[in-house]
Amino acid sequence: MPRYKLTIEYDGTDFVGWQRQDNGPSVQGAIEAAFKKYCQADITLFVAGRTDAGVHALGQVAHADIPRDDRPEVVANALNAHLRPKPIAIISAERVGEDFHARFSAIERAYEYRIINRKAPLVLDRNRAWAIHHPIDAAAMHDGAQALVGHHDFTSFRAAECQADSPMRTIDEITVTREADHVVMRVRARSFLHHQVRNIIGTLKLCGEGKWTRADVAAALAAKDRSKAGQTAPACGLYLVAVKYPA
Amino acid sequence: MPRYKLTIEYDGTDFVGWQRQDNGPSVQGAIEAAFKKYCQADITLFVAGRTDAGVHALGQVAHADIPRDDRPEVVANALNAHLRPKPIAIISAERVGEDFHARFSAIERAYEYRIINRKAPLVLDRNRAWAIHHPIDAAAMHDGAQALVGHHDFTSFRAAECQADSPMRTIDEITVTREADHVVMRVRARSFLHHQVRNIIGTLKLCGEGKWTRADVAAALAAKDRSKAGQTAPACGLYLVAVKYPA
Predict the structure, then answer these.
(1) Chain A closest CA to B44's CA: distance in Å?
(2) Separation CA B46–CA B98 (nearest Å)
(3) C or N terminus of chain B, fewer CB within 10 Å?
């Protein structure tokens, strides 16, 4: 059966997360239901990054083998028609070989974490960013973040329920920038641990508040103890932006 | 009574517009109701720009005279508390003199019109941008827009129901730029006619599609005839970004 790679955008607010679950609507479940209407068959999706409840995606990637040999645009249009009005869109579809696997072939994942730093409650960015109402210093957050770049044991930034075999990960780049009241962290790695990005931004917030320095972030990392790092930031500020594959 | 200037953000999607009306919830009505709870008095708001149903604001400005002499932060916090969970926020409040008038003192209004130019339906930008699914050329739109800069009779870009005395307006600047699939028009003028920005972007779309040149835009302007310009673009892409007052 032909294999298709899908690039997917979704608003994670009203989903229990990517993964099909018994306790509510999932992004995977919605797209598989659209496939069922389109192909009259049960299709299983394989995904690059299983996002949690409330986490958004601009460029999630999944693949599926389907019993039809349609042009990729036809696949995307059919799925989008069946997905409507759910807040999920297939941005593009592509025919790929049998050796392509959305999760195992990925060589880089890029996430963004968005903070709105202002006194007023959020309106246009409600459910789309973390509202921090007291002033935070983005440059201090950027500086603190540099302690995490490279190959490290990220036990201090890993959820208790993380299922990865190893806590070792390599962060290629983290930047924190401010434009007016928008503070954005961008982070790239081959792969991430469960809650790693949200635990990182929750820790960098301490730097932004002037409570921690870069040395404190390095010490939290070295401690290999989740209780030594900062809080888990809310899901709503997190976006899976892109997944990269070998050319 | 002390006069306060309010800077306001709102998501216009579920409102009949800024102005209080009998046919549904308005932004003005919601803020006046919040004032009533806060001041136990009927307060009337005066606004810089009466936005239509579905139009958003990042920096709308209004003023009100109120029978309390509170610090501006207290006013903003009280209104925000009473507005919750409506998608309206008071970004800031400021004490101003009796000679300040949100509408008549304004010397510049800045609007943004956001287009998402891609095949896929909108998700994170649903109700927040105009979805144009075929390719449009932002550089051609920018070029066409330059025919409108300056002091002109904008009859061709004015809604039939426009109540302004004169169709003469001065556009200080229009730019159209693209970043990936986001095409944004930014326009500044002392004031605008009813539907002027939406009629301009609806016309520039013809340039973006290669159907019109800058000379066609100039001819439509010179015709002083609404039927010679392009369509009225959807409200959901329009944002009142800022209103400027003398220092």
Answers:
(1) 22
(2) 13
(3) C
Cα(B68)–Cα(B186) distance, integer angstroms? 38
* Among candidates B89, B90, B121 on the partner chain, residue whose Cβ is nearest the Cβ of A84: B121
Q: B108-244 sits in which CATH class?
A: alpha beta
Determine the pLDDT at residue B40. 96
* Per-residue tokens: A113: 């974490």
**Shortest CA distance from A126: residue in chain B:** B87
Q: What is the CATH number of domain B3-96?
A: 3.30.70.580
Residues of A in contact with B121 (CB under 8 A): 80, 84, 89
Tokens of A56: 């958004």
CATH topology match: B3-96 vs B108-244: yes
pLDDT at position A42: 97
Cα B193 from Cα A29, distance rounded (Å): 48
User: C-alpha angle B145/B221/B139, rounded to 5°?
Assistant: 15
Contact assessment for residue A245 and residue A63, using Cβ atoms and an 8 Å cutoff: no
Q: In this structure, are residues A186 and A239 in contact, taking their beta carbons and an 8 Å threshold?
A: no
pLDDT, residue B154, reads: 98
Query: Residues of B near A (CB-CB distance < 8 A)?
Result: 9-11, 56, 58, 73, 76-77, 80, 84, 87-92, 118-124, 126, 128
* pLDDT attached to residue B112: 98
Q: What is the distance between the alpha carbons of residues A95 and A75, in angstroms, rounded to a whole number?
A: 10
pLDDT on residue A247: 86
| Residues of chain A predicted below pLDDT 70 | none
The ipTM of this complex is 0.92
Q: What is the distance of C-alpha B139 from the center of its chain?
A: 23
Residues belonging to chain B: 247
* Chain B residues closer than 8 Å to A116 by CB: none
Contact B91 A126 (CB under 8 A): no
* Domain range annotation of chain A: 3-96, 108-244
Give chain A positions within 8 Å (CB) of B91. 118, 120
Give the span between the Cα atoms of B34 and B88, in whole angstroms: 11
pTM: 0.95
Q: Can you tell me which residue has the tokens 């046919």?
A: B23
Instruction: Write out residues in chain B with pLDDT < 70, as ranges.
Output: none
